[in-house]
Structure formats: structure tokens, C-alpha cells
Task: structure prediction
Amino acid sequence: MTERAYKVYSISSGTVIDHIPTPLALRVVEILGLGNEGILTIGMGFTSKRLPEGKDIVKIENKVLTRDETDMIALIAPEATINIIEGGKVIEKRRISLPDGIRGVMRCPNPNCATNVLGAQRVFGLASPEGPLYRCRYCERTTKVEPDLLITSAGI
Amino acid sequence: MGFAGRSIISLHDMTAADLEVIMDTSGRIKAGRETGFLQGRTIAVMFFEASTRTRLSFESAIQRSGGTVIGFANPASSSQSKGESFADTISTVTGYCDAMVIRHPVEGSARLASDIASVPVINAGDGANQHPTQTFLDLFTMKESFGRLEGLHIGMLGDLKYGRTVHSLATAMAMFGARMTFISPHTLQMPDMIKRELSQAGVSFREVRQPEEAGDDLDVLYVTRIQRERFGDPQEYESVAHSFRVTADTIRGLGGRVLVMHPLPRVDEIAEDVDRLPNAIYFRQAHNGIPTRQALLGLVTGGLS
Ligand SMILES: [Zn+2]
Result:
């Protein structure tokens, strides 16, 4: 199944995000804000030795994601691996790590925070890799990254 | 990092060296060796929520240094009550002054103001988050009393869960290698976030439930108010408030030499018989708000260096 999928959907250049735990592929696409950028292929529910619950794969044609962009994936799927493809070959295998900062894509759960009341930009800095915990630049509270705090293309 | 042009928003932006500069400068001002350094400078004091003592302390500090005060004392008199956005108010007033002091009930409001303003912003309290000048005057008072902060043993008593004053004090004392004992009922103990921060900084602290468990080597007992609203059951509040009330007997039980501090206003958490003891330094502590705020304003406006 996995073998066939790779053959059918292989891309000649772009970015392949592999080993996303099922069913997080759509959230990965949302967190990367990849709504309208070229051809996007999403495969879900492949079998995987590393992820017994199954894995998802996202392929983005003709777009090489930056390290800052791929590190955002670590917020929800730290197991994910990145392959950068050029001329039909893998030219870079990339591991992801937690971003030092998060801008825009996470909201602060504190209802009395300037980001929620006064229109301040949503900015967090990494406080602890365990959790992981991020500290809001405005109210200074630390927050565990939870899926419902991440902002999707639909708004929240 | 120097102080001229710098906003003072949070203890988390400050180093021990910064705090030393503020304490040294405050000492020079209190000794009368620095005067008139805000001459020709205008400071906007904007209180989007009422806090009379903090505002008077800032205004007195500005006037005693030769500066001019503009501003407002409560939101009803500000243009915000006419619907102007906070950002627009800051963008406008930044052109009227050399520095601004802001008190606002929203957490992060002072940081946001400092993003917008082209003059230094001093945070005079942003909701439950930070009130750095309170911490500066606390540190100055301890340094004035002991000649050092290193190695002091500080007991913090009362509502440690919601009290931003004790959170900032713990953050600051950690930079000076103080020992800390947290004295509170279980429901009001120091938040994990602060305890994690202290552990990461290698600070030794312990938690006890009653003042008499703090030992007899405390240098400072820092008392904060326990608010009735934190308790669902009025009887539980009464019993906790009673056992946390500091009296002359409490002081004797702690070895008799401990200095008692309080951010004020107090209700009845320190008995009046303590006022007459040499241990009580909370009014001197409040008065020290003047030289420390003078020092800060002088430093950020470049009037002092
Ligand atoms: Zn926040």
C-alpha cells in the first residue's frame, strides 16, 4: 500500500512531510497555512512500522518549505520527517525541532490577555521543551500547546 | 544594556546588574546626591484603572525630580471612554511626553504600549501580570536594611497563588541567590510556573502551611493579603485569615529579629501591635517608592546615568 502510494503520487520537486501520526495531516496543512499554494497531495492512514496507529503523508509540489516553516509541524507532530525533493531525488532529509517562537498560529488561553482584548499580535517564546510550554509575550503566562489553541485557516 | 530610552515592563526582562543600578541610583537620590534631573521633561501618567497610592507615588517622584506631570487618573476621564482604541491613545500621547507610566487592567497592555510608543514606557501594573516598580522598592528596602540581598532568607506569607507582588519578588530574589520559604494555605500556594522557574535557576525554597513552621532564621517576613473572595466558605476564610494574622507573638516565635514587610494597603493581616516594633518596616518600604521611581524615570529618560 505504502509502496503504491509513493509511486502514484511521487513528485519531482517540492516537500514531502512523512510520518505524521494519523489523522493529523489536515492540521499540518492548516498550521502551515498551505491553502492556495500549488498542488497539495494528502494521504492518510498508511501503515507504518514507526507509528503503529498509522501515518499520514503530505506532499507539496514545487515548494520547498523553510526550516522555520517545517519546525512549526513539531508543535503537533514532532515525529514527522521532511524530505526535500529536486529533480526526482531526495536532496535533503530534515529532522524537525520545536520552534523558538510562534507567531500568529496559536492563541493565548488567558481571556484577559492583550492579544485577546487589545488586538496585540499573538507571539510566544519557547519556555520549556517538556509539554511543550510556550510563554505569551504579552501576559507572560506559560501555556501547553493544545490543538484547540492552534488557529486554522477557518479562523479558530 | 543601558537604561536610556528603555521601557520597563517586566522583571523577566531584567538582570541582577540592572537591579543593582536601580538600587544604587535610588540610594543616591534618597541621600540627596541627585536632584533636578527631570527638569524640562514631561511624563505622562496614564491610569486606565484607579490605584491612588501608586499614582500619587509616581506623581510625587516626578515633581520632586523637577519634571512635569500630564495624564489621567481613571478611565472615565480618558478618551477611551469615548471609544478610542488603546493603540490610538498611546500613538497620540507618545508625542506629548518624554516617558509614559501606564496602569491598565489587561495583562500585556504595557508591553503593547511599549511596542507602539516611541518614548520609554514604565509598567505601573498590568492586571495580574507585573508591577515591576513595586519589586524595585521591595529590593531597595531590603538592601537598605541588610546592606546586601545575597543569601537572605525571605518568608512570603499569604495569598501566594494570585499575588503578582510575591511572584515578581521571587523572580527577583532568585537572581541574588536568596533562600525562600513560602507560607500559605494549600489552596493559595505558589504557582507551579514560578516554582519551575526557581528550580531552573537553582534556587532553594520550601513550602510550609503555618508561619511558625518557617524556622527562626528568617531575615524578612513579606506579608500579603488573603482575600475573602478566594474562599467559597466564609468560615474557612475566617479560620485561615486568623491563623495567618501576624502579631507581636508571631514575630517572637520567628526569633524576634525578622523584619516585616507588606506592599500595602493592609486590612487586618498585620496586627497594630506590630506597628510599634522596630521589626515593622512597611511604611518605610512604601516611602521608598519615591526614590526608586525617581531613579527609574531619571534612568530611562537619560536625565541620570
Ligand atoms: Zn497572553
Summary: The mean pLDDT of chain A is 88. Chain A has two domains: 13-94, 101-149. The longest strand of chain A covers residues 14-21. The two ends of chain A are 34 Å apart (CA to CA).
